[in-house]
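Exercise: predict the fold of this chain.
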Amino acid sequence: MDENTIPALVEKLCRSLSNGKSSETSKEYEAKYKLALQLLSSQQLSLHNHETEFSIVQNIKKLLGSKERYQDARKFDELYTRLTSSSILKNRKAVLELMYYLAQTPASAATEPVIRHSFTLPSLVTFTSDTTTIVKTPKNTEVPYCPLASATSQKKTAAQSTLYGHSDVSNHILLREILYAFQGIQGQVFQWDATHENLQLKSTVKLPKALRQMVLSLVELGWLFHKVQKYCESPKTESTCGLAARAFAAALQEELSEYYRLLAVLQSQMEVHTIRSGDTVGVETQGLTFQRLLVWTKEPKARMKLLAALVEACHGQRGGALASVIHSFVLQGNATLKTVVLKILVQVCRPLYEMLMLWTFEGELRDPYGEFFIGVNLAVDPGSLWNDKYYERSAMVPNFFTQEQGHQVATTGKSICFLREICLDKSPIPGMNQIRRTAEERSESLLSLDWESIEEAYSTASQYLLQVLLDRYHIKLHLCALRQYLLLGQGDFVNHLMKLVEPELDKPATTRMSRLLASILDKCIRCTNSQYDDADVLKRLDVRISEPSQGDSGWDVFSLDYKVDGPLGTILTPEVKTRYETLFYALWRSKRMEWIMSKLRHQQLTEGRQLRGLLEVQGVLHQAQLLLSEMIHFAQEMSHYLSFEVVACAWEQLSIALRSSKTMDQLLTAHEHFLQTVTSRALLDEESKDIRDHLRGIHEAMLQFSQIQERLFSSAILEVEKRQGKSKSTIETFLPSIKAKLCAISASYQNFVQTFLFMLSSHSDPNLQGLGVRLDFNECYQRKDSRLSMSLTYFHRRMTTLSVPSLLH
C-alpha cells in the first residue's frame, strides 16, 4: 500500500494508538482501523447540516437526560459555556455534531456502519477457496476517495484460467483496470476511442465471450461518468451559461463526489484482500469479483445514466428553461432517482428563487444573464413602464408554475416599480414586510414556494397602487374630463366652441391659427360651465392642429388635446391618444353636420319670408325644405346615437368597472374595453369601413347642399332687390342651374342613405341595426329601395327571432 494514501495514513494512526502492534496480530488495531475508515467515509453528519449549533446542544442534553445522566448534562453545560467563550476551537459546530453522533452510535456498530449515501454497496458475504475462514464485507463500507493504487506487486503476466475460460489478463489486473475505467482512465486493457468518446478493449486483449460482455457492461459506467464529468469541467462563466447552469454543474459535481467515494470503497476492498492474500493467484474468489462488481454498480449505473440523461437534455439551456427540463425528470416511478433529481433541482432553482423573492417584494430585477422569466427593456420611455418596460418571457417560466402564478409574480414586482419610479412613492407598502417574512419562513426553495403569500403580496401591492392612482392622482377625474371634452360630452361647451371657431376653421388649413384657436378655447371655457371644472383639468386642455393635406380646411385638422404626464401617461399612451383623436374627429364631424343643418333651417325660416313674392323660386324652395328635413332628421339621429347610445352607455360600463377594479391591469382592461366599444359602435373599426365611407358621402352631400342653399338665397334676395328697384330680372341666369344641382344632390343623398341603411341592417351589431330602424322610422326609404324589404333587414331579423320559439311550440 502506498504510504501517502489516506488508508495508509489511517493505518499508521491506528497502529500508534494500539501501542505499535502489527495489524496481523492486534484485534484492537483492526477494530480501530475499520471504525476510522467507516467514520471518514460516513455522510451521517452531513445529513443534518441544516441544524443549528443551538439545536445540536439541546439534542445532546436531551440524550443525556434520557439516560438519567443529569450530572453529566450539567457538566456538559458548563463545559460548553467555557467553550463558547474560548477562541481556540474554530469549527465548534462540527465537533459538537461528531460528539452527538458518537453518543448515538452503539458499541456493536463499530464494524457495521449504518450510513447510506448516493452510491451504496449491498451487504455480501465472500468465501475463500483455500480456507474455511469466512470474510464478511462490511455493509456500505466507505473510505474517502484516493488515487487508485498501482498494485504492481499483483501483476500476473502469465495467462490466467478463470471461471469464464482462458484469458490473456489476470483477474486482478482486469479488476484494477475496470476501476480505472470507471474514472474514464485508459490503461493496459482499455484505450480511449475519440470517435465514439468511450473506452474500448484493446485489440491485443483476448477475453472469453462471457467475460468480455460482462467487462463491457461494467465499463459503460465509466463512459457515463466521463459524459457527466466533461459537462462539469467544461468552461462555464456567468455571462455564457448563467447562475442556474453553474448551480447545475455544482450539483452534478456533488453527485460525482459521492461516486468517488464508491470507487474508494471498491479500491479498499481490493487492497484489503490483496494484503491478506499476498501474491496468491485466485483473486477470482476474493472479496471483489466480477459478479459482485456488477451487482454493486447496478444502482450507481442507473444513477449515472440519469445524470448523463440530464446533461444531454440540459445542454444549452439556462435559467427557468433549465429548471423546466430538470423538473420533467421528476415524473418517474423510481423513488431513489426522483430524490436525486429533486435534490439537483433545488440547487438549480436557488438563484431563481432569490430573483423571485427580490422582484416580488422589492421590485428589483437582479438578472444580469437573462435567466428569470421577467425581462426588462431599458430603451423604453419611462411613461411606458407598465406596458412595455417589463415583460414576461414564456420560455423561461418553469413548467411547475401556472400561467396565472407567473402573471401574479410579474404584476407584483411591476406594481412596486411603478410606485417607485412613476408615482415617486418610495415608502414601503403597508403589510408587505410581514408577508415577506411569512413567505420566507414557509418556503425554502422555488419548489416549495408559498403561493398563498405570493397571492397576498400581489393583492396588497395591486390594491395599494390603485388606491394611489385614484386618491392621489385622480385618475377617474381625468377620464371624466376626456369624456367631456375629447368625446364632446359637455354640451354647452361644444356648441359655444363650434360657434366661436367657425369663422377660423372655414379658412384653409395652411393658415396659421394655433394661437388664435387657443385664445378662443380659453374664452369658451370662461363663458360656459367648464370654468367650474378642476384647475388641473383645464390646464391640461389644449388645441391640436394636425399636419394638413392638400385642400384641407381648418375643420379637417382641428382637434382638442389633453396633456398627460406621470401615472396618467400609462393610461393615455401615445397610441391611446391617437384613438381618442380619431373618435374626436368622428364626433366633431357629426356635431358639425347637426350645427350646419340647424343654421340652414334658421336661414329658411328667416330669409324665406323675403322671398314670398318671388313666385318663380317657390318650387325650388319647397324642394330644398323637403331635402333639408331629411338631412336634419339624419344628422340629429346620428348625433343622438353617438352621444348617448355609444359614448354615454360605454362610459356607464367603464364607471362600474372602475369601482370594481382591484388591480392596475383591471383598470387598463376596463379602459381598453371602453375604447373598443366606442370605436366599434361609432363605425370606426375595420368591419365598418364600407359603412364609414358611405357616411362620409352623406356628410359631403350635406355640405354641398349647404353651398347650394346659400347661393339660392343670396341670388333670390338679390333678385327681389332688383325688382323693387325696377331693374332687369336675372332669375333665368341662376335658377335653372340651381334647380339641376339640387335635384342631383337630392338623388345622390338618397342613394347614399339607402345604401347606408342597407349596410346597417346587415351589420352584426344590434345597436347599429336599431339605428337603421330609427333613421327610416316611417319606412320612407324602404318604399323607394326594395333591398330594404329583404330578409336581411333588422325588421325581418327581429321577426325571425321572435317567430322561432312559436314555430318550435
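Check your answer against the key: DSSP finds 31 helices and ten strands in the chain.
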